[in-house]
Design goal:
The chain has 311 residues and is of the alpha+beta class. It folds into 2 domains: 2-158, Ribosomal Protein S5, domain 2, CATH 3.30.230.10; 164-286, Alpha-Beta Plaits (2-Layer Sandwich). The protein is 32% helix and 29% strand. The longest helix has 17 residues, at 102-118.
């Protein structure tokens, strides 16, 4: 059996971060939305027992058992008593270590494919497997935009009107930010300060935010910009190109701007590319309200044959 799906990227329209917990994590309140940008995930399930393999063409460092997608497949097999061989192939389109949830989304995509293959409909059990892989995985197993709380596992569906975005990802590997670094920098900057949690007070309104508190920004942004000042310049480029709001997504270093329509976003993308050149990758994307479907794989040859028969 061969199944394919999209693993969508995400942005955080809100990311409020609480003080460190006893288990080392931080409590979060985040409004997360999936995008029409994402990785193509191909999962083959063997009729016989076998290993889990994972390949990411063009990214040999992501091949193998350490990939979150491979770990998700192993977690699924343990949880549901499956020993079939699983071969995963991922076509990377979402930047890596970018604050866009690419690895977590790949893991969720594999879980969705395997749930389809083996007829698993226990959403709570799938989310449990997902959380064991990463805090963002349950969101990608969900139904679309959501408020995430706790570590990210407590999800409440949210209404978010469609938004047009420009994402800017710096290519310089020295600007890459690991999530653990971003949270550590935040804790360092908060030393000696009391953090009120959950957050209270008035919130700044933002276009497109429906349910719950409107957009406030990203608590991780200031500590990251302080240590990576060029990110502040990229935020300024988006604002200068007409963004109604510009934020860092998650733990960065990707920044994004919100625009009043697709045409405005495309103009802004061209303006940012003209200024930044090859130092960045620029994407025009739109938020989506439904998770991608899992489909049975069909060869291009069979599709062209059907077209010929119809004509």
């Amino acid at each position: 059996m061969r199944l394919v799906t999209l693993a969508p990227a995400k942005v955080n329209l809100v990311l409020d971060v609480g003080p460190p917990r006893a288990d080392g994590y931080h409590d979060l309140r985040s409004l997360m939305v999936p995008l029409d940008l994402g990785d193509a995930v191909d999962v083959r399930v063997s009729p016989r027992a076998g290993p889990v393999t994972c390949r990411v063409p063009g990214h040999p460092d992501l091949d193998g058992a350490a990939n979150l997608a491979a770990r998700a497949a192993e977690g699924f097999r343990r949880r549901f008593g499956v020993d079939r061989g699983v071969a995963i192939r991922i076509e990377k389109r979402t930047p890596i270590t970018a604050g866009l949830g690419g690895g977590s989304s790949d893991a969720a995509a594999v879980l969705r494919c395997l749930a389809r293959a083996f007829g698993v409909r226990d959403a709570a059990a799938l989310a449990e497997v997902g959380l064991s892989i990463g805090s963002d995985v349950p969101f990608f197993l969900g139904t679309g935009p959501a408020w995430a709380e706790g570590r990210g596992e407590r999800l409440t569906p949210a209404r978010v009107t469609p938004l047009d975005l420009v994402l800017v990802h710096p290519r310089d590997p020295l600007l890459a930010i690991r999530a653990a670094e971003a949270y550590r920098w935040l804790d360092e900057d908060r030393t000696g300060r009391t953090v009120a949690w959950p957050p209270r007070g008035p919130r700044r309104a933002a276009p497109g935010a429906g349910d719950g508190p409107p957009l406030t920004g990203n608590d991780l942004q200031a500590p990251c910009v302080r240590r990576r000042p060029s990110l502040g310049a990229l935020l300024g480029s988006l604002t200068g190109a007409g963004a109604t709001a510009a934020l860092m997504s998650g733990s960065g270093p990707t920044v994004f701007g919100l625009f009043p329509g697709r045409a405005a976003a495309r103009r802004a993308a061209r303006a940012v590319e003209a200024v930044e050149g090859d130092a960045v990758r620029v994407f025009v994307a739109r938020t989506v309200v439904r998770p991608p479907r899992v489909s049975s794989w069909r060869s291009p040859r069979s599709a062209s044959s059907r077209s010929a028969r119809r004509s």
